[in-house]
Design goal:
By secondary structure, this protein is α/β, with parallel strands linked by helices. The protein contains 24 helices and 15 strands. It has a five-stranded parallel beta sheet, with helices on both faces. A four-stranded antiparallel beta sheet has the order 1-2-4-3, with helices on one face. It binds one RNA strand through helix 6, strand 9, strand 10, strand 15 and helix 18.
RNA sequence: GUGCCCGUAGCUCAGUUGGAUAGAGCGUCGGACUUCGAAUCCGCAGGUCACAGGUUCGAAUCCUGUCGGGCAUACCA
């Protein structure tokens, strides 16, 4: 609709110039927007104000010239007026809006979809938590944001791939192995200290216990099974592993380094599997799980370093290799290979991001916790150094989540291993409530997540407010069938074709509802453009509010047959849009609650 | 010290490519169910948009500075 108005304005400007009412045919960037206040019309443009300097005329004079040249054969515009410093406000005729109901019924689950992405390949990488422990609430927010952004972009015509980067290489994995190994040692009665830098959580004990009890044959079965996975749980010298020997005893007979290695691989695989399960329960599915180790195995890390060396952006100093990130806007240069010969994480990150673009993505989006913001500059540097444009890479920084219970902060400490996991949260409050709350606020702001509020089935909890609309409408439609008003589900969409019937929808609340419905595609587009899913949340709240207000004031099923049909048609289009919007956020739309 | 994010109603936050009288939820108080689902609605009250300058027809929005909060500042991962 916005575009329709824009074209009318552009045509009018051209005509006004032709008629000599305007002095210039130049049209500056103008805006068509839906004003905040209803008495400012359905749409408003600042055309006259932004044109003042090129036209060398007063804004109001320009507005008058424009209005006198407007052609509107369809009579979409009921009236237009000049207001304030030179705004032109358009009030649309009701009949301009009714066709949207038809469009919604026709397009159904496609309504809101667009092609602004033009099929461009976009990768959204998110969560990517180290497989050294279960996901916690912060990962949950990142998961909800990344998943929703991916959905919104896909709905907007991008070819989206969702990816999880597994940090399955390096020291934290060895630490993981050591942690499990030491717990096994404790289990089998061998005195050993448990250092502070090891993972303290109880899940380490559980894994240790499990691995310790595993028979050789069971272990072999597990490793075989995981061979087809992308994560490498490791090659084991299988020849000397007795099927009937417990793994604990077996490991005891091995050199410690090897035992730690086996523990690391077993634990990482186990934890990763847990992460995958938790994400599935949270409604998040990735297209690809990408292993950091694979970058080393395939030589891509070395290739990336060599490539940058040949481009002259990597140099040697103090026995280490440095990437000239400072010349790309970073505070200082960064080490990629330490003087002990080991690569830093940055090295594999460079290789990974190079690899992403080599896979053909036009655009790469990373979702990170806000505590990683210091890495933006250096990854940007690597993107530019590899010949890509900085605009092709976006980082979404997700601020921290404060977990509360009844207003009181829930103590969490990674060091002691005492933290509430995502799984516990999903188990307690449900996937829908958790996701909806995660997406309720801009990820630029910290978020208070109160478990008690998230559990409440009251108006304090926004997810029910919106889902209730969907269920309520489902209830109304069911009722209409029971009363014989409808005999076939197709009846409703048949009505949507009848402008004559829809014209019975004259209540202000009805027109307001239709206008909100009609704006959904623009809302999705904006959300995709700024990569902010909470815009969909805000939209859902206003749509739900408009519906509830309407419902409490007017009867959908009433004594007038045709009006009833028109209203059923309207509310079922509300239901469809609620469904589509919730789906973008990964929240279900129940028929009954 | 430096960099990034934030500062809007009592609380939690929308408002972000600059627009007109700054919005919503919660909380307070008062109303609405023998009628389609009250997990709902209606009404009242609540503001120096942290502060001070600047940019212009116009600033919560952009720029500079100050104050306050969070995060980050490794040849750690």
């Amino acid at each position: 609709m916005k575009n329709v108005i824009k074209n009318i304005v552009l045509d009018a400007a051209g005509l006004a110039f032709k008629k000599g009412l305007l002095t210039s045919s130049v049209i500056p960037d103008m805006e068509i927007e839906a004003p905040r206040h209803e008495n400012h019309g359905d749409f408003s443009t600042n055309f006259a104000m932004v044109s003042a300097s090129v036209q060398k005329m007063a804004p109001r004079k320009i507005a008058e010239a424009l209005l006198s040249s407007i052609e509107d054969p369809e009579r979409i515009i009921e009236r237009a007026e000049i207001a304030g410093p030179g705004f032109i406000n358009f009030f649309l005729a009701p009949k301009a809006w009714y066709p949207f109901i038809k469009i919604i019924h026709q397009q159904d689950e496609e309504f809101g979809k667009s092609d602004i992405g033009q099929g461009k390949k976009v990768q959204v990488e998110f969560v990517s938590a180290n497989p050294t422990g279960p996901l916690h609430i912060g990962h949950g927010r990142g998961a909800a944001v990344g998943d929703a952004v991916g959905n919104i972009l896909a709905f907007s015509g991008f070819d989206v791939q969702k990816e999880y980067y597994i940090n399955d290489s390096g020291r934290q994995i060895r630490t993981l192995g050591r942690s499990v190994w030491l717990r096994i040692c404790q289990l089998i009665g061998r005195e050993s200290e448990f250092p502070e830098d090891c993972y303290q959580g109880d899940y380490i004990r559980d894994i240790a216990k499990e691995l310790n009890q595993l028979m050789g044959s069971e272990y072999l079965a597990l490793t075989c099974k995981s061979q087809d996975k992308q994560t490498d749980v490791g090659q084991l010298n299988k020849t000397d592993l007795e099927p009937t020997v417990k793994m604990g005893e077996y490991l005891l007979g091995k050199p410690e380094a090897e035992a730690v290695d086996i523990c690391a691989k077993y634990a990482a695989d186990k934890i990763l599997q847990g992460i995958k399960d938790d994400l599935v329960d949270f409604g998040v599915e990735f297209d690809r799980w990408f292993s950091e180790q694979s970058l080393y195995d395939s030589g891509r890390v070395q290739d990336a370093i060599t490539e940058f060396q040949s481009k002259g952006v990597i140099y040697e100093k103090d026995g280490a290799l440095w990437f000239k990130t400072e010349s790309f806007g970073d505070e200082k240069d960064r080490v990629v290979v330490r003087n002990n010969g080991l690569t830093t994480y940055f090295a594999s990150d460079i290789a990974y991001h190079t690899e992403k673009f080599n896979r053909g993505f036009d655009r790469v989006i990373d979702v990170w916790g806000a505590d990683h913001h210091g890495y933006i500059n250096r990854i940007n540097a690597s993107i530019e150094a590899s010949g890509r444009k900085r605009e092709q890479f976006n980082v979404i920084l997700v601020q921290l989540v404060n977990l509360l219970r009844g207003g009181q902060p829930v103590a969490m400490s990674t060091r002691s291993g005492e933290f509430v996991t995502l799984k516990e949260i999903v188990d307690e409050v449900g996937k829908d409530a958790a996701r909806f709350i995660f997406l309720s606020r801009s990820y630029d702001s910290g978020l208070d997540f109160d478990l008690e509020v998230a559990k409440q089935q009251t108006s304090e909890n926004p997810v029910y407010y919106v889902q209730y609309v969907h269920a309520r409408i489902a209830g109304i439609v069911t009722k209409a069938f029971e009363q014989g008003i409808l005999s076939d589900p197709a009846d409703i969409s048949t009505v949507s074709n009848s402008l004559q019937t829809l014209q019975l929808l004259v209540e202000p609340e009805e027109l307001k509802l239709i206008k909100i419905l009609a704006s959904f595609p623009e809302v999705v587009e904006k959300s995709a453009f700024v990569l902010h899913p909470h815009i969909i949340f805000t939209y859902l709240m206003s749509l739900a509010s408009a519906f509830h207000g309407y419902y409490n004031r007017h009867k959908v099923i009433n004594e007038h047959q045709e009006l009833t049909l028109a209203r059923l048609c309207l509310v079922s289009s509300v239901k469809k849009v609620i469904y589509n919007a919730l789906k973008l956020l990964g929240v279900s739309a129940p028929e009954r609650m």
